[in-house]
């Protein structure tokens, strides 16, 4: 006999409306649905239209009849670029437009129907911490999901201490290679230049910096915190976080959890794409023709914008390396118009393959891939770790500066190239990764990949933490 809907748990998941955040939170939605929870996934209108355009999202998710999609405006026009250099516009519009609309939708019980029980809790992107106050007013527990690394979250958490200790703001006289003393547990490797990009504001009243400080400190008021990481990867940072936040759920890598759990369910498949651009699968055919671990894969994610000069430096470095390369050049990801110089055309044709967007998880898992030139976004970092692919890290903004330092200095699974974009350095790093130091990196990446798989397998740390999260959500239904 079916349970009445009032006896079932129902979670509202609300991601910040950009590709990387939607990607991992949609994977969490699938995992919760697989365990019998009802999930409403609230996307911005803009994001949802792109999902409908470039994925078969409704067909793919028919296997989850307890997963529902709803939309809400993000307040920006369709022609707004929504790139990393304009992300503050998105924060502002969500605060003025989306926030009051969400309150209205919740008051009107928009997400509860005959098929859907009342909301048990809200899981919202941690950068939109206003949901904590909304949830408290409506008596709905709110769990925050920070889509960044634990180490970056901890660095954000320590910003008030950095300011009090005089290590911020950064000025023209600051030595960017100075080790920081006010981020506990990271004193031996975290430099001023490794702080998140928002920290480079010379004015402490900067809107982006203040927003990050406020949101991170507000996390302590949430019912819990979810991080897409695993204990074996970021133990020191997690040990510090747990001193300040009691309910912490480390459940990553989420894409690995999804693969592991779906594999045990006959009839379920792992939805492969939540892409906001059309994936060009011809790159897989091209990779099939390349030698084993010979190709450098280049992608700077969904938010990075290169200058024309930076684009040319990367192109020169890649061609001059003599190694085959697959490069994702997203539409409008180069700020100015450009033409490939005549002297590079032949090398690009012979060794390069350029697409507008690629099925990244599949690309990184291809046997031809020998390295990843990346912006060090957290999803990309975890995907590369899982596949055992070493990285050249060129961070653009937000958490990426921290991630690149970890990859190069702490985990020893790549090379950190932050704050420089020079063809000679790029050429050398590609050769080091693919050729000169390949055995060294193969050893360290194999170890990390093994730990990632172990954490997401049955009885692994992340596997057990996800079970604990699900159990705690079900207890919320009963008012515990």
Word description of this protein:
The chain is built from 19 helices and 13 strands. The protein has 2 domains: 10-151 and 200-273 and 455-475, Rossmann fold (3-Layer(aba) Sandwich); 281-435, Rossmann fold. 44% of the residues lie in helices and 12% in strands. The two termini are 26 Å apart. The chain is an alpha/beta fold and 480 residues long. The chain has helices at residues 19-34, 45-54, 57-60, 87-107, 130-138, 150-157, 159-164, 207-218, 231-241, 254-262, 282-288, 308-321, 342-351, 360-364, 378-387, 400-410, 423-436, 438-456, 461-477; strands spanning 10-14, 38-44, 67-72, 121-125, 142-146, 224-227, 248-250, 295-299, 325-328, 352-355, 369-374, 391-393, 414-416. The protein is globular and about 65 Å long. Helix 9 links the parallel strand 6 and strand 7 (248-250). Helix 12 (308-321) packs across helix 13 (342-351). Strands 3-2-1-4-5-6-7 form a 7-stranded parallel beta sheet.
Which key terms come to mind for this protein?
480 residues, alpha/beta, Rossmann fold, 2 domains, 7-stranded parallel sheet, 6-stranded parallel sheet, 13 strands
Briefly summarize what is shown.
The chain is an alpha/beta fold. The protein has 19 helices and 13 strands. It has two domains: 10-151 and 200-273 and 455-475, Glycogen Phosphorylase B (Rossmann fold, 3-Layer(aba) Sandwich), CATH 3.40.50.2000; 281-435, Glycogen Phosphorylase B (Rossmann fold, 3-Layer(aba) Sandwich), CATH 3.40.50.
